[in-house]
Sequence to fold (1211 residues):
Amino acid sequence: MTKSFVGKSIKRNDGLDKISGDQKYLDDLKFGGLLYASILSSPHAHAEILNIDIKEAENSPGVKRVLTGDYHPHAMGLYLGDKPPLAVQKVRYYGEPVAAVIAKSKADAEKAVQKIRVKYKKLNSVSSSRESLKKEAPILHQNLKNYNHIPDVVPQPNSNIANLTKIRKGNYQKAAKEAKYVIKEKFKFPPGDHVAMENRSAVAEIKANGDVQIYSTTQAPFVVKELLAFNFDIPTGKINVIAPPIGGGFGGKAGLQLEGLAYILSKSVGGKPVKIVNKREDDMVSSPGHIGLEANVTITADEQANITGMDLQYYFDAGAYADYAVNVSRAAAISATGPYRVDNLNCDSYCLYTNHPFATAYRGFGHIELAYVIERSIDILAKKIDIDPVKLRLINAISKGDTTPTRSLMDNNTGDLKACINKTAELINWDQGSVVKIDNDKVIARGMGLLWKSPAMPTNTDAGAILTFNNDGSVNLHNSIVEIGQGTKTALRQIVAEKLQMPLNKVHITSEVNTKTGPHDWATAASRSLMMAGRAAINASEDAIQQLKNTAARVLRCPVEDLTVAEQKVFMTDEPNIFIKVRDLCLGYVYENGNAIGGQIIGRGNYIARKLSSMDPKTGEGRPALEWTLGAQAVKIEFNLRNYSYEIKKAASTMDVGKVINPDLARGQVTGAMAMGLSFARSEGFSFNSSNLVQNDTLRDYKILRYGEHPNYYVEFIETPQGDGPFGARGLGEQGVIGMPGALANAISNAVNQEIKELPLIPELIYKNVKEGHNDD
Amino acid sequence: MISFDFDYYRAENAKEALHKYLELSEQNQNVLYYNGGTEIVTYARKNKIKFSALIDIQNIPECSVLKSNEKQIIIGSSVPLNMIIEKNYFPLLSNSCRGIADHTTRNQITIGGNLAGKLPYKEAVLSLLVANANLKVMTQNGITIKKITQLFDKRLQLKPEDILLQIHIDKGVIDLPYFQIREVKQSEIDYPIMHLVALKQNDKIKTSLSSLCAFPFRDKDLETIINDNKLTRLEKIDQVVNNLPVPISSNYRGGKDYKEMLFRNSLNSCLDQLGSEI
Amino acid sequence: MMITYKGNKEISLKINNEIYKVVVKPNETLLNILRDKLELTGPKAGCENGDCGACTVLINDKPFKSCMALAVEMEGNDITTIEGLKKTEIQKAFIDKEGYQCGYCTSGFIVNAYALLDKYKKPNEQQIKEWLNSNLCRCTGYEGIERAVNKVIDNR
Fold:
């Protein structure tokens, strides 16, 4: 009789720590002899640095060192090296770090940093991605042609183009010529922020023997380690990065964040440990945020409402530096069409420099952005054809046998998108109508948005797992997944318990990641942790089982294949009363006379993405996508026609996730993502003044969804197994954000009978649309 | 974290607080009274204000009073907004304070702090203006009691050393018909983009407004228009909009056009509810 | 007599029913003192601007944002941080109903919800909203938090 842990709502392992205030995050840890840094940031969006006077700051009490850009004037980056840790010669966005003070206390550092005097000469700034392409636009990076970059990123020197990904599939021109219906639309929304509740921080120390120790609020400790090694010419093995549980990441803590700066700060004071903690304002604008987008969308359809072609131009607003944005724009090209069957496609996805705060990964990684413009366009197309938008989605939903924009086949693992659409339509009561009048002031409106996403990551992305045993027979799962709130560690424990058939409370798991002791793991990002680390954990469990059986076979004097491991015993399958306890085997078996055999059991497991390939630079052809999660989402709103405000009453989501490992945790990921998507659409995004300075760099002014503004959530899963996923599971952490902005904007557009093409969906924007719409009539 | 140093004094009575203020000022110190502190602490962290001394007036007994007697309601200036809302002696005041900040913060924000702070919204003043409340103020020349309508012009017109001790509201106004509406950009927890309060007394509507323009006000000329029953509803609204004492302000929370639309709608609802005309 | 604080001065604070003697300066907030000097790191510095609620503590049973209070004001008050709440109904309900994910806002949310459920036996939806929208959570979408509070109410 096997016990099942997979598919059950096991409680998270970090509950007691988190509800008692005991959970220690980086800023809660104590370090001996710590020095503190305070950063001076740019008050301008684009300016030349004429002079920095640090004298007074250097003489301020407690100050150890004041640094400016010339201490380490080398550009660094993730895929494209374009950003020095402190600005050199020029500042390119409001909030860019310009100088740093290291002092004995936080207060001393804060006091001194205000004594740095910087003279700037303001330069014209680029205020949008479309503007960045204009001839007269200032070029942000004159040295672009000399920057290091990976082959998949294609910057264009003497322009503001940091990357351009082209997709050419089928014959769009022909499709356009033959089309019965054509819609052509433009969309835009500004960059914004992740607003993880924990601000980023890092502590760096260089020990006497040259070992570099970094503590960081990072989702990607191995990326940090490898990039520090590359950029500072340190042997990788000399660097250790430790990642305690973090207070939310959402992509904003992937890549290289404050670690490089912390490293040079520590270096400048002889290797002493130095801590940087972002203030909220810094975290919002100095550190990278969410990408902005402007887009042109043309969709063609035939008489039967089949989509025949798409012509898409995505102009991503990367801000002043490339960071992850160059891959976000690429990921958006890979998934450019949304989850629709599109045989003829032209897509140009640009990653563009502007004088805005720069962008990094954000939950959804390019997909929430493209889904907004596609899902709005689908609704507009439905009106043009005069067909129900849900029906139009059903007709064109991608399914097994279709190909993606990069011409890779949707294989046997393809989820059932049509089932998702039908289920979501049912959850939101689509049949009751997309707009229903309640009284003179109020209408109920509904809107739908589809989603799809595949992890966008290097083709050799990997994960590892190591199982060690304790003398009570319990196991420790060593893994390098960062605890970011997602609950993957609990799911991994379930997987190990299931494989070893042992009680869950006998499966222990490391909570922090230590790159010296943990197995290599690309990053806790791209919703691939469960899939990859889950596969590695299965692998490690099987390895441990084999080793347990090998030793047990010698003791029990029977063939290995006659043995079973369960209930913390190794027993003969057909004679279960002949057994040895795991605890008597796992650290070596000891005979009565003292002879020992076997040695400790160490299960090892790994996983590497399979069959991924790069894309053809001219057509985009290739296989960059590991697996696709498909889904349909919808909202029901109550809209007030008097003041254009609205309440989101219901939000529904159906996703095909292959297999639900832990239903409660899966639901929590989806509701959280739905809220984030709704929040992004409803009220987020930076507001810039005419000088491109961010006007809302606090949580007082930058509004995220609050308690009571959240809808009732309806969440369902479809389980079409992912053949190569652990127990058939595929990723679900990010996906819930993707369809929500389109769904909400569709509902609002339905409510006011005007096509809204911007974000955020604040009442004033809707009012303006209605007013201008009426003026057009 | 506040990066600059300052001294902190906790006063036990108003006289000593005022004397301390004068004494420190003479020493060229930059002094602020501290009453709730939410604005002072957050602005100080961002170095948006500087001071060398704070005089905490929250322990002054008169400032902590919250009571109702036969004639009036007495509210000490250090009473937190939540306490006023919960006691609910004057529902219009409760309702117009309810939108300020959030519930937790309203345990810290005092009514005196809201009235005397630097932020331009001062939503607690709206109902006090239409109720024509009295303010009890400690001055160098002793205690004075004056109508708020005399003391409030864009902000409380007190001398720097003066201490707002109490607010007195005539009980005759507390059950009068009223109207109150607060509009926001999107989230309820936000500064308003328009907050309109009205009270109907002796068949006359009195109104006050915050956030529509650069500062809060009650304007007699506007009330004359509102109460002029020779005008049609639309004429009234048009004339009010055209005769605002200062133009409607525009910022990233709300543009002029949108705010005007909200104001027109709100005024219309107000007149619907309080029914000034035939 | 006017009480004066200049520079460093020892004050005594009653926190979680214990008396702490601590040297403070007038410019230090209650949050600074709790975290940096008393090792009570449950309250978090999410914004230090009164906007996020992660630093919420109770002052005489009422929720306060400790980033906006000066430590010197706090003498004579009863302060409760998350560390002072032990296995309360609402803490158990947060585990049971998945009221947390990353956990960073959790201390503040629980302290606030505890105060609400202490003041009202069965708060209504409007009261719950009015109290709890003082805190921000970025992970959960608030469903788990709502369910946790309702579980406590339903058990009463």
Remarks:
- Residues 200-277 of chain A form a domain with the Aldehyde Oxidoreductase; domain 4 fold (CATH 3.30.365.10).
- Chain A has a mean pLDDT of 96.
- The radius of gyration of chain A is 27 Å.
- Chain A has three domains: 200-277, 292-457+613-776, 461-608.
